[in-house]
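[SOLVED] Need 3D model of a two-part complex

Original post:
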Amino acid sequence: MSESNFTTKFLKVFGIDNQGHNRRDPLNVWVPLISISLALVVGMIVIAASGRNPFRAYALLFGDSGLIPGGSAWRREFAELLIKSAMYIATGLSVALAFKGGLFNIGAEGQFWVGAIVATFFGYWAPVAHTFGTMYAALGSFGWIAQLLHGAICIIMGMLAGGAWAAVAGFLYVKRGVNIVIGTIMLNWIAWFLITSWLVTGPMTPPSQTFTSGSFYVTDTAKLLRIMMPTRLNTSILLVLLAAYATWFLLYKTTIGYEIRAIGYTANIGMETPRAQGINVSRRILQLMFFSGSLAALGGSFFILGLTYQFPNTATMGYGWTGIGIALIGQSEPLGVVLAGLFIGALRTGATSMQVANIPKTFSNIIEGVTVGFIALQVAVRYYLVKIIQHRHSRANPPADQEAAA
Amino acid sequence: MNITQINLTIAQMLDYTTPILFAALCGVLSENAGVVNIGLDGIMRFGAFFGLVGAFFSHSPWIGLLLGIAIGCLVGALHAFITIRWNGDQTVAGTAVNVIAVGLMTYLLEFVFSTTGYSPQLQNYFGAQAYRVHLPFLAKIPLLGAFSNLSFMIWLGFICTVLMHVLLYHTVLGLRIRTCGENPKAATTLGINVSRVRWFAVVAGAALAGVGGAALSISSFSGFSDSMPNGVGFIGLAAMIFGKWTPFGALGAALLFGTGQIVQSIIAVTGIAPKLAPGLTLILPYVLTLAVLAGFVGRSIAPAADGLPYYKEQR
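Solution:
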């Protein structure tokens, strides 16, 4: 009997049943860390079960991930880590922001690619590209101003388009009651096929090229500035950190953010309370989807303006799906998303080296997926954590004390 | 375009339809019991790979099919364990299955066959002449002639649709499944074990998705490619919604979307509208589904308790 009291007390202290709504809950930090550790163990088992040396594989994975300084290639690896992380943090923020408002934006994938294609368009479209080209030539040593402006226009247009794409799902949700998960999944594939099977194989391709060559290349002024020569590292990581700060500010320092969180708290019981408070729920949901979509699109514009400089024919889906994992690992907090994004970026960077040990680079997907699986199981993880804490507690304090306390 | 060509086109369309149909049936069974399974794309990937492995090493597609079913059940049990035993978020669990499937199948492809991108080709698969269902008496009839020489998998899809309809609407178990999806609390008061019914629906549904995956690798094609299932699971999800969460509705939607998939090749053969962009035909399933959900083309409404974890004794 005393034990059950004890358990309830722990449940209360750790806010077990409110699924992460209590921001001060220390388990919010422990659940993702434990999930990642368990996933790394599962990864080791997979490697060992296929008759390979898991320690060698992990040495390659983490040695070349850019996390550990030192070695000749470290600067390059560190740059790659930051370039990859910037895109993942952007989609992670997108999903996390929507989570805060109680919406599951599974469509970060589509919004990412919409942002990418629009950024490509403004990167090569003659009226824009030509203006900034002349400006660059005229400014001489101040040419970087033209570069900043052109890049900014590409990114802003991409973000507007991505936001609008997400707002379509928001509109269908608030006006017609279409489930946001289903709506965004459908919009993902609509965006993907419109871009890869139509725009990039027809209207946006140079006529002389074959259909496998991807879109036009953006002009030099549209490319993101490099900040650490000779590596490819560009300003994307700075921009995404700014976006993370803006997301935090929006959520915790503005009225809109307060209202978004109020909607999120009550999302599974009908959002009557915020409505009664006079919050315009439909309008806030539309705005939330717009912000969320524009964050994913920011990642898409990094992909084009910082890495490929055109919409490549070889583009594969996955950035938005990874973003979901990152938002979950980061427990939907902007700081958590940044850290989770850096971790996944490191995994992806290191996984390329594992090919030496005959392990495909998609190995990082296994770790990501298993981590997300354990986070879905977080009720179980929390349950056993509390049991362990409880066990240690009862060993430290003899049962007699407990009886007295209860 | 003569009769033979039309028949071939129909047969090809049915080939595209089958994996979509199995995925949609998985969704129908699972969601009627109240569990959303977004991971069915991932389960199909599991089914496609293990189906191929079984067929490749045993030289018999039957073993492949069985292995596809087995792996489907296993992944379904994982989904059920997370979402029913521990009331985990169903969308998150499904996402986990999808992401794991991407990584693990590429890993196993490299491990088992030491190749990247494609597995070796199969000699014995359901698409091969020896494994087709021959109905010679249909061959001379226009349109029905397409059905005279189909892969076994296609017929299995039709049979499963009928069985699913009977199960859901003409048996006690079906009534229980639908009760769990509409109002689990009412089900509990009637003495139905909600979590057991949901376990059954999720695992049996996932077995169907596993068959759908196997249909891709050992029936429609004769091998596994790393891009499989290439979103077929999500088309299945769309077909389930477009078919209003019913088996025959799912069949109709799968046929429609299967047609959408091969409209491209029909255009190429007949020369109608050569300028039509391929992207515009590929988005058809998704646009139609959104239209139906939004109520522009006859409204489609999900089971009331779909996607909600059920806490027994919670008020």
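Edit: Chain B is about 65% helix and 0% strand.
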